[in-house]
Inverse folding.
C-alpha cells in the first residue's frame, strides 16, 4: 500500500468527486430529457447500434434512491482508497470495474436469453469494484478483511433477493476490481534499476491495456451473443 501511494499519498479525491459529478449531471439530464436514457443505457439487444453503452450505462441511474445509495458508497469508499492508489490508478480501477460489470451482464445473457432486452443502468458495478479494491488493499496490508467481505456478501445476497437489481453487474464489477487492483499495486512496486519515468510509462501502458482489454472482452461477449441469437 505504501508503494502504491507514492504518487498521491494525500490530497483531494478529485476523481471520486468527478465521477459523482458526472453521475449527478447525467441524472439531471435524463430527468429533463428522458429520451437520453434510451441511447445511453446498456441494453444488450441494442449494443451493435449503441456500443458506447457498455460504459455510459454506468453513469445513469433509475431513481433518486438508486443514485443516492450509489453516490454515498462511492463517496465513502472513493475518499478512502483514491489517495492510496493515486488518481489515475483509481480512475483506471473505476473504468475497468464498470466495464467488468457490463461484460458479466452480456455473458449472463447466454445463460438467460430474456436478459438481452433488459435495460441496465447504475454505478453499482464500479462501486463493487471499489469494494473489491478495499479487500485487496487490506489483504496486502495485513488488515482484517472480515468487514469488507461481510459488506460484499450482504449486498450480493440483497441483489439476488430483490428484483430489478443487476447482481450480474455487481459480480462482474467486483471481480474486475479485485484483478485490476492487484495488477495496479503490483506494477507500482519499485524495481531495482528502473527509473521513475520508465516505471510511470510501464504503469500507464498496463492501465490503458486493462481498459482496452475490458472493451475487447465486452466486444467478444457481444459477438458470441450475436452469433447465438442473431441480430
Amino acid at each position: 500500500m505504501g508503494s502504491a501511494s507514492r504518487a498521491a499519498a494525500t490530497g483531494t479525491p478529485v476523481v471520486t468527486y468527478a465521477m459523482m459529478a458526472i453521475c449527478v449531471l447525467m441524472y439531471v439530464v435524463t430527468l429533463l430529457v428522458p429520451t437520453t436514457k434510451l441511447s445511453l443505457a446498456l441494453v444488450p439487444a441494442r449494443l451493435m447500434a449503441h456500443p458506447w453503452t457498455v460504459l455510459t450505462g454506468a453513469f445513469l441511474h433509475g431513481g433518486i434512491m438508486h443514485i443516492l445509495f450509489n453516490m454515498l458508497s462511492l463517496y465513502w469508499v472513493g475518499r478512502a482508497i483514491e489517495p492510496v492508489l493515486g488518481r489515475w490508478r483509481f480512475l483506471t480501477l473505476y473504468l475497468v470495474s464498470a466495464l467488468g460489470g457490463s461484460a458479466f451482464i452480456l455473458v449472463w445473457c447466454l445463460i438467460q436469453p430474456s436478459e438481452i432486452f433488459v435495460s441496465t443502468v447504475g454505478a453499482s458495478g464500479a462501486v463493487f469494484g471499489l469494494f473489491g479494491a478495499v479487500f485487496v488493499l487490506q489483504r496486502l496490508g495485513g488488515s482484517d478483511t472480515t468487514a469488507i467481505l461481510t459488506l460484499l456478501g450482504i449486498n450480493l445476497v440483497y441483489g439476488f433477493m430483490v428484483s430489478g437489481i443487476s447482481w450480474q453487474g455487481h459480480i462482474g464489477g467486483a471481480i474486475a476490481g479485485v484483478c485490476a487492483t492487484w495488477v495496479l499495486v503490483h506494477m507500482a512496486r519499485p524495481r531495482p534499476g528502473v527509473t521513475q519515468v520508465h516505471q510511470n510509462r510501464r504503469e500507464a501502458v498496463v492501465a490503458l491495456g486493462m481498459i482496452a482489454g475490458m472493451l475487447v472482452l465486452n466486444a467478444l461477449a457481444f459477438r458470441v451473443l450475436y452469433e447465438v441469437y442473431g441480430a
